[in-house]
Design brief:
261 residues, 6 helices, DNA damage, mainly beta, globular, hydrolase, lyase, Abasic site processing protein, five-stranded antiparallel beta sheet, 13 strands
């Protein structure tokens, strides 16, 4: 799974790197985060028709534009009775994307990139303990070149029908991160990993003209090399949100440290 990640690169730098034409104000004001948690507001990259206002006050769909938007992490299906269900849908397993109703439609028409500087995972350790709590080692997993990665994501719109039609908060935009089976050394840490799309797949994944089956095939493309290092257990507390979270742990608890890159 992917339950915690970091996204601290400046919005304008993301725009330059991902060829983003517009940055929504709600995305621009999101500051750097080293400990993004489920239900937080996060930045996503989407391609949608630009809304253009006509002389009579109505709007029409304009040209397709790539933009950086804000969304709540945890997908809320359009048919959900309340947004609380999103807390259980922070991830979408790649193996069931085409079958599960909550993910099948977004896969076809609402795909996004979730930009990140890296993510966190915890390795369960077979160590003696005085309590029933299983000891774990936290790891920071990030691009080997310290660049930005793009998680494959889906997004959805949910209408709060208790709000008036002219209430700007009547629509909730939410997102989920696609995961797949971990391979190689990463599988020693956890059996799942976020689906990281290589740069060559970004355009097709975002393109509204690309169908669900073709988009699904992009998830098999090889991702950029990753690096791994053990870090402090401080990351387990969501109140900790600072650059120190990604610093190496000088005395890791893991007796067989996973090191990649």
């Amino acid at each position: 799974m992917c339950g915690r990640y970091a996204s601290f690169t400046d919005s304008q730098a993301l725009a330059d790197d991902l060829a983003i034409a517009e940055i929504a104000e709600d995305a621009r004001v999101l500051g750097p985060r080293w400990n993004v948690a489920p239900t937080d507001d996060v930045r996503i990259v989407v391609e949608r028709p630009r809304r253009e206002r006509l002389a009579d006050g109505s709007t029409t769909a304009g040209e397709i534009t790539r933009s950086l938007q804000a969304a709540r992490w945890g997908l809320v299906p359009s048919w959900a009775k309340d947004p609380g269900v999103g807390a259980r849908m922070i991830n979408a397993r790649s193996e069931t994307l085409l079958d599960k109703p909550a993910f099948a439609k977004p896969l076809g028409v609402r795909r996004c990139l979730v930009p990140a500087d890296g993510y966190y995972e915890w390795r369960r350790l077979d160590l003696p303990t005085a309590t029933k709590k299983v000891p774990k080692q936290a790891y920071w997993i990030h691009p080997a070149d310290d660049g930005v990665v793009a998680f494959a994501g889906l997004y959805e719109f949910w209408r709060d029908r208790s709000r008036a039609d002219d209430d700007p908060d009547r629509w909730l935009v939410s997102t989920t991160i696609v995961t797949r089976a971990a391979a190689g050394e990463l599988a020693r840490i956890h059996d799942r990993t976020p689906a990281i799309l290589p740069r060559s797949a970004w355009d097709a994944w975002l393109d509204p003209a690309v169908g669900a089956e073709e988009a699904y095939g992009l998830l098999d493309m090889t991702e950029a090399p990753l690096a791994v290092r053990p870090i402090s257990s401080r990351v387990g507390n969501v109140r900790n949100d600072d650059p120190g979270l990604i610093e190496p742990d000088p005395a890791p608890l893991d007796p067989d440290v996973v090191r990649v890159g």
